[in-house]
Structure formats: structure tokens, C-alpha cells
Amino acid sequence: MITARAAASFEPVGRSVASARSFVRDTLQGWGFADIVDDAVVLTSELVTNAVVHAGTSADLLCLRSDEGVRIEVADRYPEREIPLQGTAINMGSPDREGGRGLQLCAALAGRWGVEYTPTHKTVWFQLDLPARAVGTRAAGPALPADLLPLADGRVRVAVIQIDRTGHITAWSEDAEELFGYPAEQVTGKPLTDLAAWPHTPGTSTGIAEALQLSRWEGSYGIRAASGRVTPVYASHLRVRDTGGEPSTVCLLVRDHERAVLQTPLRVPASDTSTTSEGQGTDPFEVFIGYPAPDDLDGLLQRTVERARDMLDGDSAFLLLATDDETELEVRASTGLPSARQRFARVPVEAGPGRYGSARMPAVHDDLTAVPGAVPLLNGTGMRSIVTVPLKVEGRLTGSLGVAAEAPARYSNEEALRLQFAADRIALAVESARLGELERLRRGSLNFLVEASDLLAGTLDRDQTLALMAQMTVPTLATWCAVYTIAHQASEPYLSYVLHEDEELIDGIKSLLSKVPPPDPVPTPGARVWTAPGEVAHQAALRSSMRSLGLSGGPTRQVTPGIGPTLATASAVGGETVVLPLVARNRVIGMLTLGKPTDEHFRQEILELAEDLSRRAALALDNARLYSERTAISQALQRSLLPPELPVIAGVEVEVIYRAAGEGNEVGGDFYDVFPIRDGAYGFAIGDVCGTGPNAAAVTGLARHALRLLAREGLSGPAVLERLNSAILDEGARSRFLTLLYGEMRPQEDGSAELKVVCAGHPLPLRLRQDGSVEPAAEPQPLLGVIEDLELYEQTVTLDPGDVLLCVTDGVTERREGARMLGDDGLADVLTTCTGLTAGAVAARIMRAVERFASDAPSDDMAILAMRVPGLHKD
């Protein structure tokens, strides 16, 4: 029973043969009979050629679908009355003859075939039986070895997302939550564009908003998961409407490497040559490619190689595009070859001397086994004969198109001319599409580099810079990356960071790279191939496989569990690996290593983008190194300006709190010190140099060290400060005025402490008595570093048991919140609440009150020195 039919008529011109092949291919693919398409196309090609070329009449083509298979009829208007008698052997001629091969092919490929005659027509028909398969199966593929099947996870998850007419998410399935990490309530109501990283597939020109408006769409893009990483997905969109007429889009998404679950074969209607108006010529490009032509480069190239293979009845075909300098060709599309292994592989334009070693001239090889390596892309594929032709635009080489067959001596110069004619028709369209793709990639590259520069400029931390470098390259530029750093000119490269898009493989790659000598730190710009990781991974995987089979001795069960990670690591680093130098300030400071999984190659545009990124990353990494070194030096010098640990003074509690203003500063213009002078006597000081930062810290160091030296010479307090004043004035233009509270303390046997104090322009020290009263413990005197002749005097203060002496810098008293200031009175009010507290508790309460006085961070250095006499303990 006939379940479907399709018919077309073709004019008696040579291009009709290609149109007939396209018609049959598209029809059978539309019916879901992809497994018999190739046989049907070959037979149709021969029969239509007999009709339109040899018979010289138009050809009527009829395709009939039934439950048993497909019947194709080709009728011409050249009736033949030589009806073969039943039981008589049919002489179909020699296989080498130009004619008669169509019937021979029918006899060889078709399940049934025959010839029918009418007074005006002759019809040759053949029937191809469908392979056995389950009822209701729309399409079936051939049986394949397990290693050639599409890669999928243990469980394939299909995310179902529904989008309303405004582009907002209305439904989010459990598999979507599992794939991307967002619960439904978190994403419902949000635009899909907030999650989509568009586009993921190179050459995709349709935006996400436009794709959601199409009735049906398939393609690749990325979804930014809850972890922040972009998950490449393959999506199938179907636009529907509900009972109320409201349109929405149902999106099915799987991981990109599982695209076989959703992807459907590309079906493009063939050109209808029968409707061409009389006298109107048909575009040769459309005749070869079909109408409408794909609007993206990858689709155009793939259609080109399929049409070229069909045109010459080849077993495989490939198309390569030239680099900008025309020195190399890059594989961009192939059919009948392991495309995953060949894609983006590069070969030189001039592979050898002579005409046949150059891609700039057409070439025919009758037998590749006679010239091993003549076409490196076909090594190990079983192809014997090949014809290649160049693609040129205005005399410039833009690519190369090749068709190959498993049989030797399959092609002649005539086929080369036919293929060159087709290449000339498509060269301009291919170059135009390539330039359009390059422009889109360059715009994307500029945005990528701008974002990368902003991120790298936002940190001066070395470890964070290394992490940013890796996260920007994976998975945008590479599947995995490793960063080597070189500390000094003579040191060896050190593996500092490793990242893979699958976090479970990071440790395996890190372990593998640790066993491989690092790449040489060559300063030459550009990416260079590094084969060591792939070779070592292959050897490790081979050893693990042999051990798992028990070929190296020992129980198999003990080694089998380790084979999984080893093979996974080998597959992860088995593709192309390149190294880019990190050069900053004319020195190689490291290497950026990028890698692909097994049999994959880098695009030239990606390598150029990676080179630009490596230059920016190298400068950021070197800036982080210099900043770290300067910070370490600064912190070491600053720590040298701080006094050592406070001495333990019998009968006196001492506590200090010190805060320097400014990020990264440990010492500023404020300083303090408590030190022993001689037996039973201790010196203490708290001061404030004019200003903050390094210049003030320099005077701080001078003052603190001078105080210790002068005090231990046995000088009195006023004499110590007068000599310090002279030393500051001797600094000349670098000198700064200094406020200083200096005193000498001597604990007494009765539990009190005697203090001799000089207050040179500094905030007065406050004395807290046990009854809660607060009073100044000294009188103000001139500050240091302003006038030469100072007349200072010291005052004696006795701290009774339970008394507290509080000394602060002006950063405490001048703490501001708008127009309000803490001031001396505010400090005294806080101190009155500290009765009975230890020296440490007093200092902590003062600091807490200062911090709470204003919401902003302090802008001035602060120092608090609290001394308390607890008195004698009685048993």
C-alpha cells in the first residue's frame, strides 16, 4: 500500500542530475529513511543521467513510500522496444562502458528493479527495502561500534522549559533544576536571556530573542548555571499556543555533547527547476548548494561537502579554509570522515614540491598508497583516490575542496574540472560567510578582552590573578588549562594552577602534569604545540588497560578500579595542547597551557584571542608579583618601627591599642613605646607626627629609637625631649612637628607608682581615680620640631592603687560624625565609666566608644596607652 508519494520533472540539462539527487535526498530524509538515502541517491544519479544526458529528454521522477520500502521511478521520453525475454540472460555490457552502468547498479544495490515501456515513455524503477526495525520508528541508523556512539552521562537529562510571549520563564522541570542548579521558584518569571550566554556555537547569528519567536528552532548556546559556570547545551524550540490563543515556546535542552538526543537532520527543499520561467537562467550557486542556502558558515560548508561528494559519487569529502597569511589550511567541514578528529586540524598549503604538493592547483591522485602522506588528512581512513581543487577569490587562495573514494583510479581530469567549476561558483559565498563569521568573532573577542582586562585590573593578589586567568580560558577558549610560573630568571617553571571544565578531572590532570617536564620558557610570541602531556597520558592509559587485563601479572581486581580516572585523564588531555608564553617587562614569568580533549584542535582565531589574553594576563600577574614584593618589604619595614612586646612591670598593668589609618599600613604617624630604663624605672611615650603614611612613619622611627637611646643615657625627661627636638630639626625639609607625651615610671613598695611626665603639645593624659573622678595629669607645653630653644619641665604624678592613667593621640579625641566631635570632654565621660576595670578592659572600652561614635571608618591614626596600679594583694 502506498503511504506517500513525491514527484518532480527535470529538464534535459546537466544540472538536472544534481537537482534530482537533492530532491531524492530531501524526500527520503523527510520520510525518515536516512539509512537508504545514499543508495537511492547513487541509483537516481545514474538513471537521471541516462535520461537527460544520454537520451536527451526530460526526466520524470517519482518516489513512492510503502510499508515494505521505497520505490523510485525514472521515466524519459525515449521509448525502447527491445524487451528482454524471460529466462534469457541480460547482457548489460562491460562495466567500463560509459552507458549501461545504471542497470548494473540497480542489480547490485536494489532489492528489486525493472524496466517498463509505453508508446511514449520508458520507465526504469527500483525498490530499496527498509532494514528491520520497530514499528513506529521514524528513522534508524546503522549499527556502530561502542566507541563511535555519541557520548552521554549515566543518565541523560532533558530540561523542559516553557517561555511566555515576553520571553519570561513560566515552567522549569526537575531535570532543568538538576542540570543548572536553579530551583523553579528562583527562575520562574525571569527572562531566559538572564541565564543564556549567547551564542555558544561559532557562526550562530540568530539572537535568543529572535530564536524564541521562530515557529521551530534548533541550535547550541550556553546556560549560566547557579555555580557561575556556563553549561553548553543543545536546544530544540517549538512555538505553540494555548486554548486561549496565547503563544509560548517550549524549549527542550540537553548537554551539548548529548545533542544526538534532540538533533534532527537538516532538510532543505531542493530547487524546483520545473517552475523556472522560460528564458530565466538558474543561479549556478543555487543549483549546486540548493535553495535556500544556509545563512551560517558552518551550515554552508557542510552542505558544500555533501553536495560535492554526491556530485562525484565519492565516499567522503572535505573543505579547508586558508589562514589570513595563506600558509596553512584549516579543516572546517567533512563528510564520510571522522569529523570530530579532523575538525580544525591544520595542514600547510605547500605540502611538497611540484604541482601535486600545493593546494593552489587542482590535483588528482589515482592511488594514495603509492604516495604515502600525500594527503595527511586521509591517513588511516581507507581512501585510495582523491581529487582536490582550490577555492580562490580575486586570485587569492581562500580554501580547498576535496572528494575521495575508497577505490583507486576513481577520478580523472574531467571530474577535477567539474569540481573546480563548482568550487568557483561557491568560493565568493564561502569567503563572504567566513568574513562575516570573523567579524562576529572579533566583536565577541573585543568584548571578551575588555571584560578580561577589567577583571585582571581589579586585583593585585597573585593567587586570585592565577585563578582569574584559568577561569577566563575555561571553557571559553579551551577545555582545560594549566598555568606555570617562573619566580626568578634562573628558576624552573612551577605548576601553579590547573583547571578543567569538569572539576572531577582536575586532580588527575594535575598529577599527570607533575610527572611531565614543564615546557621550555621560550619568549617567542604565539602559541606552540606541546605534545608531551598527550603522549604521557596515552602511555599511562595503555599501562592501566594492560594491568586491567592482567597482562602485567598480579590480580586484576586490585588494579581495575584505577583504570577509570586514568582513561578519563588521558581522554581529557588527548587532544591538541598549546603553550603561550607569559612575557612581562621583557621577561618570561610563566606559561599559559591550553588543552583540548581527544582528537580536538584549536581554531586559529581562538589561538589569536588566547595570545591577546596571555599578554594582558602576564602584565597583571607581574603587577601582582611586584605588589606582593613591595607589600612584603613595606610590612617588614613597618614592623621594625613598632616596639617589641610590652615589658612586664611588677605592680603596674599596661595595655596598648594601636590602629594605623590607610589600607596596608601597619605604622603611621602615631606611635607608642614602653621600655625599661634602669633597675626599677621604666620609660613610656605616646606621640603623634604631623600627617599619616610613610613620611610620618619615617619620623616615627626616628623619635621612638632616639627616646630609648637618650633615656638610657640617664638624661632627665626635659633633656631627652630637647635633644629629640634638635634631631628632628636637623632633618631639614623632611622634618615634621611632633606632639609627644613622655614619662618615667617607678613602682613603689606601698603599691603606688611615681610618674615624671612631660607633655609637649600632646593631648593631656587623664587620671581616673577609684571614686570615678577624672582629671588631667599634666600641663601642656610646646610641641617638638618647630623652634630650636625649648624650655621644658617635668611634673610628678603619683598613681594610687586602683588609679588609671589614660594616654591617647588626637585621632581618638578628634573622632567626628558630621559636625560632632568626641573631644576631651567626651573622652573623659567614657573614662568615668571604667572604674574598677583592668587596663586592658579600659583600653578596649575606649576604643569601642571611639568606633561607635561615627559610622565611617577612622581616617586618622589612633593610639591608646592605659596604665593601672592594681595595688598590693593581701593574703
Automatic annotation (TrEMBL):
One annotated GO biological process: regulation of DNA-templated transcription
PAS domain mapped to chain residues: 160-190
UniProt cross-references to Pfam families, sorted A to Z: GAF (PF01590), GAF_3 (PF13492), HATPase_c_2 (PF13581), PAS (PF00989), SpoIIE (PF07228)
Domain of life: Bacteria
Keywords: Hydrolase
Record keyword Nuclease present: no
SMART domains found in the cross-reference section: GAF, PAS, PP2C_SIG
Signal peptide: none
CDD domains named in the record: HATPase_RsbW-like (cd16936), PAS (cd00130)
Keyword field contains Hydrolase: yes
Single GO MF descriptor: phosphatase activity
Name listed for the protein in its UniProt record: PAS domain S-box-containing protein
Species annotation: Streptomyces violarus
